[in-house]
Amino acid sequence: MNEDGSMSRLPELVAFAQKHGLKIGTISDLIAYRRRHDNLVRVERSQTVSSEFGGEWDMRIYSDTTHGDEHIVLSKGDLSGDAPVLVRMHALDPMLDIAGTGHSGRADEFRDAMTVVAEEGRGVVVLLRDTAMKLDPEEGSSPKTLRQYGLGAQILSSLGLSKLVLLTNSPTPKVVGLDAYGLEIVGTRKIGDA
User: Fold this and answer.
1) Per residue in 125-135, pLDDT tens?
2) Does residue 25 surpass a pLDDT of 90?
3) Angstrom distance (rounded) from CA 54 to CA 87
4) Mean per-residue pLDDT for 163-176?
5) What is d(CA 25, CA 79) in angstroms, rounded to the nearest whole number?
6) Is residue 156 a contact partner of residue 87, using CB atoms and an 8 Å limit?
7) Cα–Cα dist 107/109, whole Å
8) Which of 84, 93, 128, 156 has the fewest CB atoms within 10 Å, i.e. is most exposed?
């Protein structure tokens, strides 16, 4: 805190650290360190699957080594190279995705993202699962946690991706720390737009 009670920002923190001989680190520094030393996801299996939402897909099942949750990655096309890749990060919410208890039209977002990637011929759809999530339609059960963002970033990084075009129906997402994983959001595209 600054002397006036306001929250210190980086310039004030640097001055404070220098005055007291302290080291300073950012969230990106911490993520970069953990990226080099901690790998929280690993591929358990890989196979080709056929779906009514776009035909043949390369499917990888990733396991979260800390919680044991399994996450599904469906990809199409050659993901290598510098060209941005379409990406949908989808946190499974059974009340919304299966029961359709959310906003109108939201229950089909995962399927619609698969369709968009299939039409493009290149991209990734990630289904993040949280088996510890409580189902409470009154409070909303969406598992959008910082832990899942980190796991999703590790998954995308392990696929060799760097530039992402997010498939979303949300306002422009603010995702902090992706640079530590070598990821950059270069654009967004509304699910269902051609």
Assistant:
1) 999 886 665 55
2) no
3) 15
4) 77
5) 33
6) yes
7) 6
8) 84
CA 116 to mean position of chain CA atoms: 18
Strand blocks (E) in 65-117:
70-76, 85-91
The pTM assigned to this predicted structure is 0.73
Q: Mean pLDDT, to the nearest integer, of 38-44?
A: 82
Closest CA to 140 of 171, 101, 167: 101
All structural domains of the chain, each given as residue ranges with its CATH number in brackets, are 1-38 (no CATH), 40-190 (3.40.50.10990)
Q: Which among 188, 173, 179 is positioned nearest to 157, based on CA atoms? A: 179
Tokens of 110: 């995962």
Handedness of CA 40, 124, 157, 92 (dihedral sign): negative
What's the confidence (pLDDT) of residue 141? 44
- H-assigned helices in the chain: 10-20, 27-37, 94-97, 109-120, 146-158
| Helix, strand, coil tally for the chain in percent (to 5) | 30, 30, 40
Give the model's pLDDT for residue 193.
53
For the beta carbon of residue 109, count every other beta carbon within 10 angstroms: 20
From the CA atom positions of the chain, what is the Rg in Å? 19
Answer for the pair 95, 137: CB distance below 8 angstroms, yes or no: yes
Q: Which of 89, 90, 107, 106 is nearest to 98 (CA)?
A: 107
26 band by pLDDT with thresholds 50, 70 and 90:
confident
